[in-house]
Amino acid sequence: MLTAYDYPSARRTEHGDIDICLVGDSLAQVALGYDSTTRLTLDEMLYHCRAVARGAKNPLLVADMPFGTYQLGPRDALDAAVRMVREGMMEGVKLEGGEEILDTVRVLTGLGIPVMGHIGLLPQRHASLSGYKVQGKNVEDALSIARAAKALEQAGAFSIVLEAIPSPLAAHITSSLHIPTIGIGAGAQCSGQVLVQDDALSVWSAGHKAKFVRRFAQVGQEAQRGVDGYARAVRSGDFPADEEGYGMSESVFDKFKDALGKEGESSMMATS
Amino acid sequence: MFTAIRPITNSFTVKLATGQGGVWTSVRRMSVRPEAPSPERADRKKVTLQHLRQLHATRTAITMLTVYSYPSARRADQADIDICFVGDSLAQVALGHDNTTRLTLDEMLHHCRALGVKEALATAVRLVKEGDMEAVKLEGGDEVVDVVRAITAAGIPVMGHIGLTPQKHTSLSGYKVQGRNAQDALSIARSAKALEDAGVFAIVLEAIPSLLAEEITGSLRVPTIGIGAGMRCSGQVLVQDDALGVWGGGRKPKFVRRFAQVGEEALKGVEASAMAVRKGQFPADEEAHTMPQDELNKFKDNKRV
Q1: Which CATH class is domain A2-223?
Q2: Where is this region: Disordered (chain B) (predicted)?
Q3: ipTM of the complex
Q4: By residue range, what is the domain housing residue B296?
């Protein structure tokens, strides 16, 4: 699974044979420059979903339900999820949370909207959790997470994202479920993996790299090189070269200049 | 609703879209985020219309590049690009529509000649107010002069766009170079003058013969920004995706130069990540978290009970 937020990034998941293309609410930060995923509105998410859907035909399309669209209860969540499927052209939705969202998950799956769960570290709750820390390192938390996984499976989720939990815990949860787990910072024993595409491609050259991210390309550097190169070439007069422009036959140009000259004269005469 | 780049860059932002401003980021520790400290570059002064005039007066080439997202805007700022332009080319490069006219008014408020002067002005106001933009660009010649006057009279800077105007490609039967015969050339030159009189602060010249562009540039007081118009314009613009080679296949227009191969690099990364996952090579132990052994034991005991 890999995130995408627009047409080009979606095309890459298509060409790269990715199984699930996730329109993650990480786009709030990586695409829109917001300071938190909680700033993303449903309309903004739908805009990006549509663009992704145009780019990725084969991967399964799943999108994060933005913060606030499902916390108020099943009815609100249903309205939002229907919009994501109908207007956003998505095939499934992802919700963060465990026991507290089970009713909502049941309602959605009951109506045929595939739901992907997400437990462990919940980015939309970073404010209440005081940051983005690894979860499930003590027994109570670990048990709570394991229970949530089972409950989500029973409520009908078709898979569950495990984020930032110890690998042994993730391994245990994975083997205890029938449905697949998709890990991020949860070790290699999950059924699959997910990364934010911008992180995997190193779109951001500076900034902190989380331990679970691996750089599979240096797009940020390459892109900056391109923009720098363009600016330099324009300022030095190197771009565009003659062959990067269009010619005009001399006779036509002369005719044009004559006509221009005559117009100039007549307007001067008119004003004098 | 297109939520786009907030001018957190120091470039002058010209746009044809509506949206909400973004807020600068803080560090998210579990993933990579952009440079943490101050986003505004202290070493760079904000580009204003006055600055553009200075560049023009000193014959320093003006650089303009399209942007459509936060990362593409950051790159433009890093490279000291003068004008950041949210072009409706984003319809194709970012959104995957098959041409720029597919953008709905909801997705992008672009000015249509079909709109009356009042509606156009209202649209421009929205772009500036809601979209945090500093100026708008309008395609067209004589026929948009009234609209240009109204918008500039309201205090909103307007950039003109003549020559090949992508929004009209159907009626022009494709993306062909314009102004190759004397009549068309005259018409374009006249439009340029009329737009200048109506108050534009700059004019984009697209896909016209270099000689014509040079002639027009010399005849105006305001700067011209060329694309496929040769190097005698006051500045240049390219669609960032074209300049960076985001699209591997497809025909490359003659006026585009690839300054990077981002598409290749990015696809390489996606393919490598898929392979690494499928082979079980990613994540490695050091890319994951451990758990204290006694806690793990207690957990396992609990589960067995």
Answers
A1: alpha beta
A2: 282-305
A3: 0.83
A4: 266-303
